[in-house]
Design a protein that fits this description.
By secondary structure, this protein is α/β, with parallel strands linked by helices. It has a single domain, classed as NAD(P)-binding Rossmann-like Domain (Rossmann fold). The protein is built from ten helices and 13 strands. Strands 3-2-1-4-5-6-11 form a seven-stranded parallel β-sheet, sandwiched between helices. Strands 7-10 form a two-stranded parallel sheet. It has a two-stranded parallel ribbon with strand order 8-13. Helix 4 packs across helix 6.
Length: 323
Amino acid sequence: MKILLTGATGYIGKSLLPALLDQGHEVVCCVRDTGRFDISKYSSSRISVIEVDFLDRDSLEKIPEGVDAAYYLVHSMSASKGDFSDLERQSAENFKERIEKTKVRQVIYLSGIANEENLSKHLKSRMQVEKILSAGNYGLTTLRAGIIIGSGSASFEIIRDLVEKLPVMIAPKWLKTRTQPIAIKNVIEYLRGVLMKAETYNRSFDIGGPDILTYKEMLLIYAKVRNLKRIIISVPVMTPRLSSYWLYFITSTSYKLAVNLVNSLKTEVVARNNDIHRLLPSELISYEEAVSLAFDKLEQQEVVSDRTDAVSCDKLDKDIGAG
């Protein structure tokens, strides 16, 4: 099967690519800059790379017509120029317009869990992209995730920075917000499992791990795994601007991304029950185990980085599907 993989230099794309190759698929990797993609790391002859900018319609003509399915892993939440929601809308529209001219039968989109009435700008943008993609002449399968835990993911690295650097945290009240993290291994299993599965066409599914935790609990569990004693004190009043600076100065995230993260972390992100567990039975990994697995990878130096962002098809910049 011939698969188009957008976001091939991003964290999710890099994690998904080996799984697709292992299944015997031919994979066309969509990247904004071929110089950032080291094809020599892959021994398979079933991999090719094309340079595409989803904000440039002409460049999308490089997408081959003979693809059977496509993964849309394009986000731009920390874009330094322009409004990220406008950029995401334009990218999705350009992608849909081009992919409809191919033989593609299925598009798989990784989005964020959006079950609250008051959604953040980030989640509204993700839902807008889903609406655009759903109007295509192919089957759209949407997987909606919360925080994705794995070595190198933006979410994991922020948690890691906070806990490793701060023995005592004076933290914003959004640390009490509930979320449902999911291990990267389970995300890849779902992304791979829905491929060409007709029962998933034109449907969306929430995916989450077995634990529903507050952000504070996530930080403390991380500390437990690392054998670190940490004290976290939540303050009732901390403006969004102060919260953004708090993340920016303590973690390795950019200020632009910190602002969007703070606006997102106020929204509860808990998966609704759906058919995904019936269609794709999976052994879900606990948050604590996911953190341990992430450190196993770090020790083995098998880290897939997700530190930078690009507005086109070379990165899923924020694995916090939570808005």
